[in-house]
Amino acid sequence: MPLLISPKQTISELVLYLLCAVGYVRAASNAPGQPKQAVTVNAFELVGNSIASGQQVFLGTEDKVYIVDKTENNPTQINGHPAWAAEWSASSEQTRPMDVITNSFCAGGSVLGNGTWLNVGGNQAVTYGGDAAPSQLGGAPYDDPDGGQSMLNPCDGGNCDWFLTAPMTTRRWYPTLETLQDGSVIIAGGCMFGGYVNDAAQNNPTYEFFPSRGQPVLSPILQNTLPINLYPLLWLLPSGKLFVQSGWKTVLLDMNQNIETPLQDMPDAVRVYPASAGSTMLPLTPDNNYTASIMFCGGSNISTAQWTQNWDIPHWPASSSCVQITPDQSPNYVELDALPDGRTMGNLILLPDGRVLCLNGAKTGTAGYGNTTFTIGQSYANQPQLTPLVYDPKAPATKRWSLDGLSSSTIPRMYHSAATLLPDGSVFVAGSNPNSDANTTAPYPTEYRIEQFYPSYYNQRRPEPQGLPNQLSYGGSYFNVSLTLADLFGNVDSIQTANVIVMRTGFSTHTMNMGMRSVQLQSSYTGNSDGSAVLHVNQLPPNAAIMPPGPALLFVVVNGTPSVGIQVMCGSGNIEKQSMMPVQNLPTSNINSQQATGQKQISAKLARLVFAVSLHNTLLSTICMTF
Questions:
Q1: What is the DSSP letter of 118?
Q2: Which of the 8 DSSP states describes residue 130?
Q3: Residue 57's closest CA among 458, 362, 355, 347?
Q4: Could you please report the per-residue DSSP string of 455-473?
Q5: Confidence at 22, pLDDT banded by 50, 70, 90
C-alpha cells in the first residue's frame, strides 16, 4: 500500500509515522525496556516499608532486594519471633518478612561464584535491649542462636529463605568478605563478642575461606592495628593480590604465600569502622588498562589512643579528606578533591555512567552507639548529612564533587544504614538505627522507611539494546549488541562513545559495599546506513581477579544514559577455577559513509524531533494506532 501524504500533513506527523512504521517506538521483547518515571530526578522518593531495619542490604535478583537486621524487637513477626530480615520487590514496592534465624548483628556478606549469598558472623544471642541471652543456643524471648553462617539463594517466587550452613572455626563480629577468582570467599577479621572498638582479649586477627581451606591464617596487619581493626577494608586486585586497609595501616596480601607487603600509611583520617569513611574501587576500563584505583572519603581523624568511650564522641567533626591509591602500581596515596564538608558513614555508590554517588552519614561523631551522658539518645553521631553528592572522576581536579540540582532527603541515615544500586539505575536506601533495640521515639529512631534516589539520567529515554547475553566468559568470542536510531538519541555518531558496563552492586553494610565493582568491556562499533548501529563487545578480560565469578548487572550506556541493567552470570556459575580463553579480535570501528553523508542533510529541527519522539514509548505506541 503506497504511503499517502496529505498537503496538510506536517513534517512532524510524517516523521512520527515513519518512526512508528519502522519500529523505533516499540522495544523488542528481549531487550531491556523503560523504567517507571520518577516524580523528580536528583531526588529521593519513599517506596515502602523495610519490616526489618536495613543494617545490611543487597540486590539478589533484578527485582528483589534483601534486607538483614540485628536481633531486636521489630513489630512484624515470623515463626514466633520478630522478623530480622525481609525481601523488597522493586516492581511492587511490597516487602515480605524472612527468617534469618541467627543474630546477624554486624555480620559481613558477599556472593559466591554460583550465585548463592553468604552472611557471615554476627553477635551472640541476645535478649531485650541487646543484652546477652542466658543461652547461646536459642530460647526466650527471641530464640536467636549465636551468629554463624547463613546462606540464601535469591528468588522471584516469594518462597526462598535463609538457611544455615556449617559454622566457621572461630567467632567473628564485624568481619569483611570479598569474592575471589574461583568464586570462593575470603573472610577476614572481626572480634569475639563486640563493642565500640576491638581489644586484645577478643581480637580475631585471622582470615579464612568459604568453602573452607582449613584453619584460619594469622594476619599481622590485623594483629597490629588494635583497637580500630574491625571491618577491615578489602579488595581483590587485578594482580590477584588482596588490598587490606586497617587502622592507619595498609598492606598487599599474597593469599597463596601469606605474605603482607606494607604500603603507605593512610593519610589524614581513619577510614575503617567506626570512623566509617566511604570507600570504593573506581571503574576498571580499557582506558586505564583495567588497573584498580581505590578511593576513600571522610572518616575521622582520631588518634589511636583516643578510641575510647569516655569523651564527647558525637561532637567530633568528621573528616572531609578524600584520597586514592593504585596499589598494583604505587605504594602511595594521593590527595583527591575534598568533600565540601566532613562526613562519616557516607556510602559511595558506583553509578553505571561512571560517576560515584555519596549519600547518608553525619557531619560529626562516628558510627556506634552507647549509654553515656554525651550521646544523642544512644547515637555516637550527630548532625545528619541529608544532601547527596556526586563525584565525577573525569572532571577537572577541584571540580569533581557537585551538589548542583541535588535535593535533600528528609530522613537521617546514620549508623546501620545502607544503600545499593538497582537495575533501573536508581539507588535503594534503607536503615538507620543507632539504638540497642528497636526504638521509634529516639532522637535518631529505628528507621523502616525505604527510599529510592533517582540520578540525573533517570527520566531520560533509555537505550533498549538487543543481543545481550545472560552469561559472560573470561575471554572468548565477542558478541554483538544492536541499537536503533532512537537508542542513539537520533544520531548514529553516539555509537562512538557508547559502552557496555558490568557491575556488581555488592553487600552493603556499615558504609561498605563489599564486592562492589564496575568493569567496562572492550568494544568497537559499526554504524549502519539506516541510523542504527552495532556494538561488537568482548567478553570479560581473561583474568577473574578483574571481575570475580558470580551474578552481576549488564548495562549499555549511550550519551551518559544507561539502559536498564539485566542480570548476567560472570564465569561458569560454579565455585571452581575459571576457564580463561583467548580474546577474539574485534572488527574495526566504522560508520557507513552513506549514513554520514545523509545525516548532514538532516535539519537540526528534524534531528531534535527524532530525539523527542523517542522519549515517550508508551504514548507514541498509542498514537501510531491512529495512522
A1: E
A2: G
A3: 347
A4: -TTTTSPPP--B---SEE-
A5: very low
Q: Report pLDDT digits (tens) over 389-439.
A: 999 999 999 999 999 999 999 999 999 999 999 999 999 999 999 999 999
Query: What average pLDDT does this structure show over 552-559?
Result: 98
Let me know: does 111 contact 98? Beta carbons within 8 Å.
no
Nearest to 48 by CA among 593, 448, 477: 448
| Phi, psi of 115, deg, nearest 5 | 95, -5
Among candidate residues 544, 535, 555, the one with its CA nearest the CA of residue 580: 544
Please state, in angstroms and rounded to a whole number, the distance separating the CA atoms of residues 566 and 185.
24
Cα separation, 108 vs 508, whole angstroms: 9
- Under 8 Å between Cβ of 347 and 362: no
For position 626, what pLDDT does the model report? 37
**Residue 97, CA distances (Å) to 59, 144, 209, 554 in order:** 16, 16, 30, 29
pLDDT per residue as tens digits for the range 481-499:
999 999 999 999 999 999 9
Helix (H, G, I), strand (E, B) or coil at 396: coil
**Which residue matches cell numbers 511490597?**
94
Q: What is the mean pLDDT of residues 7-34?
A: 45
Closest CA to 362 of 377, 375, 338, 345: 345
227 prior amide bond cis, ω within 30:
yes
SS3 letters across 500-551: EEEEECCEEECCEEECCEEEEECEEEEECCCCCEEEEECCECCCCCCCCCEE
Check: CB of residue 246 under 8 Å from CB of residue 221.
yes
**In angstroms, rounded to a whole number, what is the distance separating the alpha carbons of residues 319 and 368?**
17
Residue 270 corresponds to which amino acid?
Answer: V
Model confidence band, residue 269 (pLDDT cutoffs 50, 70, 90): very high
Strand 259-262 to 217-218 pairing: unpaired
Angstrom distance (rounded) from CA 343 to CA 412: 13
Contact 506, 236 (CB under 8 A): no
Whose grid coordinates read 556526586? 390
DSSP line for 477-490: --EEEEE-TTTTTT
Residue 32: pLDDT band (50, 70, 90) is very high
CA dist 337 and 295 (Å) reads: 11
Residues 6+ apart with CB under 8 A from 463: 32, 483, 487, 488, 498, 556, 557, 558, 561, 562, 563
Strands 85-89 and 95-98: antiparallel
Residue 210 corresponds to which amino acid?
F
User: CA 572 from chain center: how many Å?
Assistant: 22
Q: Around Cβ 214, how many Cβ atoms within 10 Å? A: 8
Query: Over the stretch 189-216, which tens digit does the pLDDT of each residue have?
Result: 999 988 999 999 999 999 999 999 999 9
Residue closest to 556 by CA, chosen among 532, 530, 583, 537: 537
Bridge partners, 480 (sequence order): 536
Cell numbers found for residue 388 = 547527596
Q: For the residues 1-30, what does the mean pLDDT come to?
A: 36
